[in-house]
Task: structure prediction
Amino acid sequence: MAASGLEQVTPQGPAGVAVLRFHESTRSETLERLGLHEVPLGSVHLVRPSLDGEVLDEGLLVACPDGSLELHVHGSPALVERLLVGGASARQSGARLSLEAAALARVPGAPCSAGARLLLDQGRGHLRRSLVEILDRADDSQAKNLLDHWRLQRFWLKSVRVVLVGEVNAGKSTLFNLMIGEEHALISSEEGTTRDAVQGRGSLGPWPVEWIDTAGERDHVPLAVERAGQEQARMAAAGADLVLRLLPVDGLQAKPSSPVLGVTLPSVPEVILRSRGGQALAPSSEPDAGTALDVLADPEGARAVVARCVLDSLGLPGDWTRTSGQAALYDESQAEALAAFLGGDSSPLQALLDISD
Ligand SMILES: Nc1nc2c(ncn2[C@@H]2O[C@H](COP(=O)(O)OP(=O)(O)OP(=O)(O)O)[C@@H](O)[C@H]2O)c(=O)[nH]1
Ligand SMILES: [Mg+2]
Result:
């Protein structure tokens, strides 16, 4: 039972409504703590549960015909967590979900089925068992193995984010539409067609990818709206896993690689692809070397080149699978705890395991 005297009946994770059931033995104390009162059997009341004088939500108090009492609230995980912890929000109180509960809470947000399966496995306790073994046996190789896989598997839990940049008319939107498989972004021979950063989802082999098309760069930006678009592009690129710069072979302004919109982003790798070209295809770090993508004449060839370029740049294999029922990390903090363990400090790992259901 949770410390709050409430137990979640609906599945964990974001949802429209969450149902919390009162534990019979502490029912009246829990009601009092939430500023609520008993309601007649079989009735439903609109209530505003509060903790420490702060109203948390508007919900329904349901006295079920079988005698049990339920609180139905909006299904925001933060709200539910706060009610279950029974006091300040988990973050405020320092309380955290267990490894299992936190994994299950993330399942609805997984960007692909492989990620959802990985989380479900950890919800069943595979990660906990592996971390206990690592601690008990001081098993460095098992720790290293989990960390190696984390480098890849984190992209099942958070899509690979690729931002397309380049001068106006470089063919960014044309390539974007190809990679997401639908005509989402507007394409035109007029310069400066894309004004906002546009997002779309696709996949490369087993990896979910979030593509972001951006407003084209040009030396003189006449309109405020274009400046705003370029600012969006800069922000998108700063949060990217990879920036793909298109450099048109036939562009009047074709020039060597420049930092994204004049700003150097040291932590984000940037790869240059020649665009709007002839038939042969090759990614290149040398703007003048290689031949260009021709998305219009050879979409499949262009797609294959871009896929290879993105996967190779990030060191992702094109055919990665995992056996179900295996331990896997699913959060950066777990990777940090294992790295600390390998560095001789096991306390962060111990802290992860100390939180139980
Ligand atoms: N031949 C050829 N033309 C292309 C290719 N890709 C794009 N184009 C053409 O180039 C023009 C500009 O394409 P867009 O995709 O709109 O270019 P953009 O980089 O998004 O342009 P802005 O949004 O203005 O920055 C259009 O007329 C496209 O049809 C290509 O691979 N080959
Ligand atoms: Mg465009």
